Amino acid sequence: MQQLVLATRIITYIGIGITTLFTAIFFLQIFYTFFALFIKNKRFNKTNKFNNHCIIIPAHNEAHIIGDLIKSLKAMKYPKQYFKVFVVADNCTDNTAQVALQAGADKVYERFNKQLIGPNFAVHETLLKIKDEFGDFDSFSWFDADNIVDENWLSIMNDAFNDSKKYDYFTSFRDTQNFEDNWISSAYSIEFYRLVSQVATTRSAFRNPHMVEGTGFMVRSSLLEKNNYWGKYQSMVHDTEFSFDALVNGYKGVYVDQAKFYDLQPTDWNISWKQRTRWTVGNYKLGNLINKTLFKNLFFKLEAPQKKLNYLEYIAMLTPSWLFFFTLLIINTTITALNLVLLANNIDNIGVYLGALSLPIMFIYYYLITFIMGLCVIIRQAKKIKRFSPWNKFKALITYPIFIFLNIPISMYASKNKNMKFVNTQKQRSLNTKI
Predict the structure, then answer these.
(1) What distances in angstroms separate CA 213 from CA 27, 164, 206, 252, 376, one per listed residue?
(2) 420 lies in a domain?
(3) Alpha helices (runs of H) in 26-65, residue ranges in sequence order
(4) Which residues lie below 8 Å from residue 212, measured CB to CB, with a gap of 6+?
(5) CA–CA distances in Å: residue 430 to residues 175, 267, 381
(6) Best label site of 104, 198, 217, 420, fewest CB within 10 Å?
(7) Is residue 92 assigned to a domain?
(8) What is the pTM of this model?
(9) Into which family does the record put it (predicted)?
């Protein structure tokens, strides 16, 4: 029995050590989310200079929805002669091109390529055509076809573009159109508020390169040229690939909180599953591309401490979440089982009782951490999301940890489907749209 007690203690210490290690790996995400509560976003001085901006929209069978975005872009309070809206109708079988032109797009390019599938390839090819036909622009911005843009978006982004620090790329506030549709759309909304606003806010405050999240971002043309007009980024998660490239090469990014656009979140479970699986498979494949550079820079290159921490964050993001989960599950199940045996043999003290609860404590710990992160989001974004009812925000907080936990089965499924090709996920405009 003494040997069992000793073994239980050793395994418990190992479990505590591994839990501490995993918490440390994910600490940055927790820290960024919490610390944003105490940071004021950078405001940019108004400029009298009007730069020429290129806005591009990759679209696949988006005729039902793209018109709203183009109309919102054309309604922006920025001189019309200083920006153009381009659409690439990518492998479309509907009338996306015609709808885009009727809505006011300056030019629509139709692309048919069944080998190179994905918006990154479409955007790369189209940017080269735009350069040949329209010459140079000062920047390029990317929007998904289901977005709607605030009328001041480009004016505010132009102010940031002309800041004396000469940032290389810019991200903006990703608001949501349909928070109140169901638990899926509200969870997506909270997660994007967290990533695009709070994490980016803290990163910008500490002058850390932050991640581009797929839409609503701007890149300086000089940087675009350096990277072959987005041709350098060929993975399924090209935005993350660009973000890692920015980290490695020291590109300066900034988050522009006052410039906002509205994203449309999935409400259908099947669409959500496909989209998140695509992201996860994309992360796995990206890991194969960058792991060598990632570990080399982390362990063998002399760089600033905050940069090293960012490399750890990429390791956490690119490692299958099921690996973390099942490691903890096996250890905590073992600890619980051993302590139940000790209790059955009348060996009882506070440590044994806590050990017997190790498995449920693991799940409670996870739920509380993610719940608190969601609560931090609701608190910080209170003014921006006051249009949503308190009851719906409370329900979203309760279900948000479940949404995040689903990364585990999704990562398991993705591990078995690593040959998955790019999948387009279409969404319908919500009847409950609030902007």
Answers:
(1) 20, 25, 19, 16, 20
(2) no
(3) 27-35
(4) 169, 171, 239, 240, 242, 243, 246, 253
(5) 15, 9, 22
(6) 104
(7) yes
(8) 0.91
(9) Belongs to the glycosyltransferase 2 family.
Q: What is the pLDDT of residue 393?
A: 96
What burial class does residue 131 get, using C-beta atoms within 10 Å of its C-beta: 0-12 exposed, 13-18 middle, 19+ buried?
A: middle
Reported as a single tens digit per residue, the pLDDT across 375-406 is 999 999 999 999 999 999 999 999 999 999 99
Residue 431 lies in a domain: no
Listed residue (105, 120, 22) closest to 66, CA to CA: 105
Closest residue by Cα to residue 103 from 73, 130, 60, 137: 73
Reading the block at residue 18, the tokens are 């591994």
Give the separation between CA 302 and CA 305, rounded to whole angstroms: 9
Does residue 76 sit in the same domain as residue 135?
Answer: yes
- Does any domain span residue 350? yes
- Tell me, yes or no, whether 11 and 125 share the same domain: no
The domain of 48 spans: 40-289
Q: Report the pLDDT value the prediction gives residue 3, as an integer from 0 to 100.
A: 72
| d(C-alpha 137, C-alpha 162), whole Å | 14
User: What is the rounded CA–CA span in Å between residue 2 and residue 346?
Assistant: 13
Kindly state whether residues 19 and 121 are assigned to the same domain: no
25 and 63, same structural domain? no
pLDDT digits (tens, 9 = 90+) for 198-222: 999 998 888 877 789 889 999 999 9
